[in-house]
DNA sequence: AGTCAATTGCTGAGTACTCAACTAAATTCT
DNA sequence: AGAATTTAGTTGAGTACTCAGCAATTGACT
């Protein structure tokens, strides 16, 4: 049995040291750290989480646009249940309000309150600062452009087959 | 007061539609989707989470190397408390075991069991498949190289100032 | 029109994390 | 050597998700 075990050892070490595994780990780790950095800055300075900021960004993009919870869930990679509770918390802190849709009585439209818009404006500043510092600054101009286009491709591939 | 409000409207729309905000969102979203994809594949095929897989990768890298929980926590971007419970679950499912360090009686070294190594070997296959499909395939060879080097830079910047 | 299927949002139960406070061991300072 | 500080890991309480299952509403098929 020892020779078979030695065979495995080789395969195991090879798999654990694979280039792909390392690179993928780097992506996940960088994204996690970056999100944590933004999240704690936003919590400290504006009292909102990074996820709440993503909601506000979505809601402020086109003023007057009707945005349902389902829509938000898709955009934020959340389940509908997670979204319900997220909007609950945001409504409770007065950042957004739910409005019944006139066309479809199932959907709850979400819109920012005046206060939500005010908080968003302050948060956008913090957000920009952190993104600038850790996402743009470390990269050469060209690399930044290529990074984002690479991410677009990856994102497209992920969206395309919803297996 | 209306003119002031209109002023804000402009600033709000500009902030919400900023290029940086969009690009950063893309990074976070791609990473999240990618991780979810891997996580569900691993759970379905091998009964382990993506986080557990990251632990196994770390433990199988250099066989015989002493890896403490602290070490794992740093590598996985987890708190020590999160790591304790993660290793609890992994120990319970027989994937790893805790061994007291002979040099420092505070530290708990973590090592993979035979079963853990077996599971890792199967999981590495799934892992490689998904990474290949959504991380490598969508990109031209050059773009892949540049993407990973850009990520390295970002990661370095994040590591450097631990503000 | 009447049933069947799909979709929206909500809720209970469970999971996987965080933070703060703790113990025990090791290290540093004097 | 002894006190003060730092570090490793654990625990309790809280947070923010997920999944499965629900009711209400809408749309599609005949």
TrEMBL record, chains A, B:
Instruction: Show the SUPFAM superfamilies listed in the entry.
Output: Winged helix' DNA-binding domain
Q: Which domain of life is it from?
A: Bacteria
PROSITE patterns under this entry? Answer: HTH_MARR_2
Cross-referenced SMART domains, in alphabetical order? Answer: HTH_MARR
UniProt xrefs under InterPro entries: HTH_MarR-typ (IPR000835), MarR/SlyA-like (IPR039422), WH-like_DNA-bd_sf (IPR036388), WH_DNA-bd_sf (IPR036390)
Where in this chain does the record put each HTH marR-type domain? 17-156
Q: Which GO terms describe its molecular function?
A: DNA-binding transcription factor activity
Q: Enumerate the Pfam families for this protein.
A: MarR_2 (PF12802)
What processes in GO biological process is this protein linked to?
response to stress
Q: What is this protein called?
A: MarR family transcriptional regulator
The species is: Streptomyces luteolifulvus
């Amino acid at each position: 049995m020892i020779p078979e075990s030695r065979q495995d050892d080789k395969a195991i070490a090879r798999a654990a040291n694979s280039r792909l595994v390392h690179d993928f780990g780097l992506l996940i780790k960088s994204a996690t750290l970056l999100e944590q950095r933004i999240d704690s800055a936003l919590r400290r300075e504006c009292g909102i989480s990074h996820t709440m900021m993503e909601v506000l960004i979505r809601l402020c993009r086109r003023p007057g646009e009707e945005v349902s919870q389902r829509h938000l869930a898709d955009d934020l990679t959340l389940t509908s249940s997670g979204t319900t509770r997220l909007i609950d918390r945001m409504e409770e802190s007065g950042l957004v309000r739910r409005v019944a849709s006139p066309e479809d009585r199932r959907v709850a439209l979400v819109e920012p309150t005046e206060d939500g818009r005010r908080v968003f404006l302050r948060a956008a500043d913090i957000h920009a600062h952190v993104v600038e510092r850790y996402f743009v600054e470390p990269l050469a101009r060209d690399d930044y452009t290529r990074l984002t286009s690479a991410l677009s491709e990856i994102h497209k591939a992920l969206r395309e087959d919803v297996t």
